[in-house]
Amino acid sequence: MLRSKGTRMIPLLSGIRGPLPGDRLPDPRRAPDLRGSGRPRELAATRLAVPVGLHTGLGCDAVGVPARFGFKILSRLPSKGCVYADSDWWWWLVPAGSDHDVSWPLPACYAPGAEIPDRRPRLIHHPDGTSPYTPPIPLYLLVCQLTGIAPSWAGPPVGSAL
Predict the structure, then answer these.
(1) What is the DSSP letter of 114?
(2) What is the pLDDT of residue 6?
(3) pLDDT of residue 35
(4) 60, 111, 118, 129: which sits with the fewest CB atoms below 10 Å from its CB?
């Protein structure tokens, strides 16, 4: 595990499922090629570093939204964990598996293992307690509200016993 001043790297978690085949997710790893070739260039990936002293016992994933939604979400959440930002995206740490039976609406991007495009994100909000996590359900509901998409998650099968 790599360590630097005041941060620790989130270890890779095995068994985390990624997008299913056919899922259409935004690809924030692509950036326009500023040299004029017209084709996007690939960005390297980075794992969000959790400040020392915060407990990551539930594993870490991240939910990213375009920067235009960042302040709105941050100001409306009753409880906030670590929030990172770069010029294009804002990222919230959530417990691993926060995508289980939930469809995060576009343009949100779910990043298993908190591995995101390396646009040099910086920590812009440090939680008051010892948990780095933003509660995923309020975050999900806010993202749905701001994008105008109805929340959708799988429920238990309903049956009758006659």
Answers:
(1) G
(2) 47
(3) 45
(4) 129
> Residue 11 and residue 23: Cα distance in Å, rounded?
26
What's the whole-model pTM score? Answer: 0.71
Q: Are 106 and 64 in contact (CB under 8 A)?
A: no
Question: Which of helix, strand or coil describes residue 47?
Answer: strand
Which DSSP helix (H) or strand (E) runs through 143? helix 136-147
Chain centroid, CA 109 distance in Å: 6
Contacts of 73 by beta carbon, 8 Å cutoff, 6+ apart: 65, 90, 92, 139, 142, 143, 146
Tally of CB atoms within 10 A around 46: 16
Give every CB contact of residue 160 below 8 A, 6+ residues apart in sequence: none
Mean pLDDT across 121-147: 94
**Using 50, 70 and 90 to split pLDDT, how confident is the model at 134?**
very high
